[in-house]
Amino acid sequence: MKDERSKMKDSKKLLTLRIPATSANLGPGFDCMGIALDLWNTFELYEAEPGNGITVDSHGEGTAALPTDKSHLVVRTMVDELTMRTPFDPRQAHYHIVCHNEVPVGSGLGSSSTATLAGLLFANGLLDPEGFQTETGRQRILTRAFDIEGHGDNVAPALLGGMVLVTASDGHVLASQIALPPTKVVVCVPQFHFLTSHARSVLPLHYTRADAVFNIAHALLVTEALRMGNYDLLADAAADRIHEPYRLPAIPGALQAKEAALSAGAVAVCLSGAGPGLIGFARDRHVAIGEAMRRAFAESGLAARYWVLDVSMQGTQVVLA
Fold first, then answer.
1. What residue numbers bound the domain in which 109 lies?
2. pTM greater than 0.90 (yes/no)
3. Within this chain, do residues 91 and 191 fall inside the same structural domain, yes or no?
4. What does the pLDDT profile of the chain (321 residues) look like in tens digits?
5. What sections of the chain are H helices per DSSP?
6. Domain count, the chain
């Protein structure tokens, strides 16, 4: 740590980003609905000594598993964006990135989306430092992030804050931020390696019309319930037939944790993104609900952690040096 502080003392900071965790899908809103949460990853971009290339230091969540070279997702995304938009030779680059991670990796809370956005914002900050302040600049970032991720239910709320409905039509990303009353949730994440690719592979290739209509109706009702703070409606609306019936059984203890949370006072419990984390909505008793989920996972052989978090109406924060 001392060596890194010394190195940073002599380096010029160019950009600082704070990007929130997210929870996507929210039950029936598969790939098109998400919320930002008050849990943040912070990324700093420094100008380094020539000849060092692009290097990364990570602190906090996932540090031991994250690369420190060009294979890091922030670096890959930044280099790809710069290469696409301007003559850029990464071998001649000299930048250092510092990541302070509060969002657990592989949790269903959008850690990879924060890295994707960081890479895009660093690249755009180098090319157009004021670009993020404009609607056109934010739309460009959102469109590129959507293209990279293949869907926008994590990157859109992480970028914009609050609850966001998002999709793409003819290459144009449509996103709408929904104003919510103060909303508190509990998220519980088991120590279970559940690859997004595997989470996708367990889904069927085809659905019935009845299931499609069910999810469309319930996604609309979830949106209205959260917008109005109507937990009675949310209790009935947060049901899904597209992904949870296939993913929940693939995560040891997830079904039991969901039932334990409901018994402890949650009004609705969903997979957070593709999982393995769960998100619970409740009027109160959030700590008791988190403890109930943690115990249920433990009884299935998985250690788990939980956080009680506010929905953040603020999205990505960009600070120019």
1. 2-178+313-320
2. yes
3. no
4. 445 544 555 578 999 999 999 999 999 999 999 999 999 999 999 998 877 788 999 999 988 888 888 889 999 999 999 999 888 877 778 899 999 999 999 999 999 999 999 999 999 999 988 888 888 889 999 999 999 999 999 999 999 999 999 999 888 999 999 999 999 999 999 999 888 788 889 999 999 999 999 999 999 999 999 999 999 999 999 999 999 999 999 999 999 999 999 999 999 999 999 999 999 999 999 999 999 999 999 999 999 999 999 999 999 999 987
5. 2-9, 73-85, 111-127, 135-149, 155-160, 196-201, 209-228, 231-237, 244-247, 254-264, 286-299
6. 2
In this structure, the answer to whether residues 32 and 154 fall within a common structural domain is yes
In the numeric block, the tokens 């979830």 are attached to 222
**Tokens describing residue 158:** 């992480």
Q: How many helices (H) and strands (E) does the chain have?
A: 11, 11
26, exposed or middle or buried, with CB in 10 Å at 0-12, 13-18, 19+?
Answer: buried
Helix (H), strand (E) at residue 244? helix 244-247
Which of 119, 115, 122, 168 shows the shortest CA–CA distance to 146? 168
Both 158 and 9 in one domain: the answer is yes
Q: Is residue 157 within 8 Å of residue 272, measured between CB atoms?
A: no
In this structure, what token pair is assigned to residue 155?
A: 């990157």
